[in-house]
């Protein structure tokens, strides 16, 4: 899966004053950042942070911690994106969930959504997600949970004429959850005030409603397509990480300077040619305190390359400083930049660290009552 060409220590040839010398790209030391965590226990708690905000604040004005592929715990490093259970995510302050559902049939006429990441089942159903969200909101009734719902994978044993929207409608109408789903008003329901959605699950609908096509934009919560989204998720190798970071940074800036009536969503995640943990951390393995991977490039030869990536293991020879350029993950780079912004929208992360959550929550302090 991941291109393993960037080793922790390699030898590079560097020309100095006409002489060819050998320079060691040294192994990177262990690295811990508040932006990234692969731990399975809570290290920050914000169970009631939205409850402290004014009622008149609109969705588009908020900065919201979220998780990409919220329920992806199984399938190995190529698939896993989270380590905190859903209740623990909510307790820590996460308020935007990314729920991927496979439409499946049980028995003759029972239909459900299995939670998946690609083709990998995650040992959970949509019922479990809703129960966890409802239990949290019962305990914290001034909070709100935003939930992207997306159909993923091929339907399993679904007969002709039965579509995803029909089964979602059954969940929507089920007495166990019906009162907790937020039903928007007929007009202007895409940017609610907090007082309209406290104690509610707000669906970000990312599936077609075939029975009502074209569907009214307010049907089943908020149309996911109405958000301003950055989700460039394909990296062909580790060396595409800086391009991904550039897209994240540009979207952070757009959210900060854009219309206050537009809701922005920014995915820090990517995969395909890299592991999700690497994109988030830049680390050589998933551990919270693992060493960074070296890019294989050094300064001064590449002094103007990947300026936001750290220069490490620096040493001086003659009159020149030589440094290894290390990878840095999108979580960590975002954590470092957040104090420069006033609003960033929904930030969707793999393995978010406590500091990343803390700083996103803190951006909303100006809306406190």
Task: Please describe what this structure looks like.
- Helices cover 20% and strands 25% of the residues.
- The radius of gyration is 22 Å and the shape is globular.
- The protein has one domain (31-292, 327-367): Phosphatidylinositol (PI) phosphodiesterase (TIM Barrel).
- It contains eight helices and 17 strands.
- The protein has 369 residues and is of the alpha/beta class.
Main β sheet profile: 6 strands, mixed
How many structurally independent domains?
1
Instruction: List low-confidence stretches.
Output: 1-24
Q: What top-tier CATH class fits best?
A: Alpha Beta
Helix vs. strand class: alpha/beta
Question: How many E-type strands?
Answer: 17
How do you describe this structure in short?
The protein has 369 residues and is α/β, with parallel strands linked by helices.
Map the helices and strands.
Blueprint: E1 10-16, E2 19-25, E3 64-67, H1 86-92, E4 96-106, E5 110-117, E6 120-125, H2 126-139, E7 145-151, H3 164-173, H4 194-197, E8 201-206, E9 222-223, E10 228-230, E11 234-235, H5 241-257, E12 264-267, E13 271-272, H6 276-281, E14 294-299, E15 311-317, E16 320-326, H7 330-337, E17 346-349, H8 354-362
Parallel strand pairs: 3-17, 4-7, 7-8, 8-9, 10-12, 11-13, 12-17
Antiparallel strand pairs: 1-2, 4-5, 5-6, 14-16, 15-16
Give descriptors for this structure:
single chain, 369 residues, alpha/beta, TIM Barrel, six-stranded mixed β-sheet, four-stranded parallel β-sheet, globular, disordered N terminus
């Amino acid at each position: 899966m991941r291109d393993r060409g960037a080793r922790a220590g390699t030898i590079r040839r560097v020309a100095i004053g006409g002489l060819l010398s050998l320079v060691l790209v040294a192994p990177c030391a262990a690295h811990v950042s508040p932006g990234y965590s692969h731990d399975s226990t809570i290290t920050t708690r914000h169970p009631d942070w939205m409850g402290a905000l004014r009622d008149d604040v609109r969705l588009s004005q908020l900065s919201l911690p979220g998780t990409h592929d919220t329920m992806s715990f199984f399938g190995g490093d190529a698939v896993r994106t989270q380590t905190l259970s859903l209740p623990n995510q909510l307790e820590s302050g996460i308020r935007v969930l990314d729920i991927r559902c496979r439409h499946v049939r049980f028995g003759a006429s029972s239909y459900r959504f299995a939670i998946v990441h690609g083709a990998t089942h995650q040992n959970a159903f949509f019922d479990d997600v809703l129960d966890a969200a409802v239990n949290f909101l019962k305990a914290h009734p001034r909070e709100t949970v935003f939930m992207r719902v997306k159909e993923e994978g091929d339907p399993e044993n679904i007969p002709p004429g039965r579509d995803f929207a029909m089964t979602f409608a059954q969940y929507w109408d089920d007495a166990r959850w019906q009162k907790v789903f937020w039903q928007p008003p007929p007009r202007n329901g895409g940017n609610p005030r907090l007082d309209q959605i406290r104690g509610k699950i707000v669906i970000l609908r990312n599936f077609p409603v075939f029975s009502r096509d074209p569907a009214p934009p307010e049907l089943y919560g908020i149309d996911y397509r109405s958000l301003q989204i950055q989700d460039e998720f394909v990296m062909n190798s580790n060396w595409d990480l800086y391009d991904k970071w550039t897209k994240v940074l540009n979207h952070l800036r757009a959210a900060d300077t854009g219309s206050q009536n537009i809701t922005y969503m920014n995915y820090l995640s990517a995969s395909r040619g890299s592991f999700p943990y690497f994109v988030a951390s830049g680390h050589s393995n998933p551990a919270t305190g693992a060493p960074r991977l070296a890019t294989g490039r050094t300064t001064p030869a590449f002094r103007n390359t990947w300026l936001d990536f750290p220069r490490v293991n620096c040493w001086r020879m003659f009159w020149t400083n030589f440094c290894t350029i290390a990878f840095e993950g999108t979580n960590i780079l975002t954590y470092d930049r957040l104090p420069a912004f006033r609003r960033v929208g929904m930030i969707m992360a793999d393995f978010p660290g406590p500091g990343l959550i803390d700083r996103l929550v803190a951006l909303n302090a100006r809306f406190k009552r």
